[in-house]
Design a protein that fits this description.
By secondary structure, the protein is an alpha/beta fold. It has helices at 2-30, 111-114, 159-174, 188-197, 219-228, 282-286, and strands spanning 35-36, 43-45, 50-55, 59-63, 67-70, 75-79, 85-93, 100-107, 122-127, 179-184, 203-205, 236-241, 263-269, 272-280. The strands form three sheets. Strands 11-10-12-9-13-14 form a six-stranded mixed sheet, sandwiched between helices. Strand 13 (263-269) and strand 14 form a beta hairpin. The protein starts with a helix and ends with a helix.
Amino acid sequence: MGQGINQKLWLLSSLVLTVCIVACKKEDTVLPLQALGFDGKTALVLPSGSLRIKFNQRVTWKTTAGTATQTAQDSLVYTAPSVVGAQRITVKSEDNVNDSLVIKVVVTPRADVLRPLQKGGYVLVFRHAAADVGSDQTNSTVANWWKSCDSKLARQLNDLGKKEAEATGKVLKNLEIPVSRLFSSEFCRCFTSADLMSLGVPTQQTKELTYYVYEEAKRYENMMKLVDSQVIDVNNTVLVGHTGFMGTLPSPAPLADLNWGDAAVFQSVAGQPARFIAKIKVAEWTELAP
């Protein structure tokens, strides 16, 4: 009888141990794949630069270009290709191939300038896109001639300019650079450039950005006042205006030599003038267009 009881106890112990092992294995596989400390936005990387992402478990991966290695600490170190463009890293859990993440990567030599814009607090001042159709009739007697989209009254965008404005807007959205305020000059070539960017916010036309017809001698000063006055939050502001300033300019004057479609980047600073960061040429925008 005692031997029978011992056998039953042994069977019961084995059953409990088996249940425990199965339960533990279930717990191990339930853990979802996570990229630790990664905000999930498009990663901006310099050509041949590296990106390190730590995961909460061992992973396998596949890249559209570039190479990757995994460290003993479960970090994936991605080395970007030397060419500019968009790439993808598909990461899967070693324990569950159905659990995966896709990380978007954009390789650009302006990564260090563009990356902070994803968090907001910057002002991008664009010169309008390429415009050589017609000329400004500054002596016109037509009311508000500068607001006209008629090339007989004011210079208008050409086809390339329209395409580049659209491409720049797509890049801003693809890079997940948030914009909540959009201002332009009253000239058609400026508000059309702004509208073609399709940034999801209405274009506000303002005198401060408008060429020739208002306080031309103070236009640079007024543009910078508009730059300095922007709120600091998780979004950015885009301005679209002109160059060709008259009057005395400060030194340096980063807005003065922008070419068509170029942008000057300023960081908003509480209680101080905005800080000039860099210029981004139109070709550096359009080469990133999806």
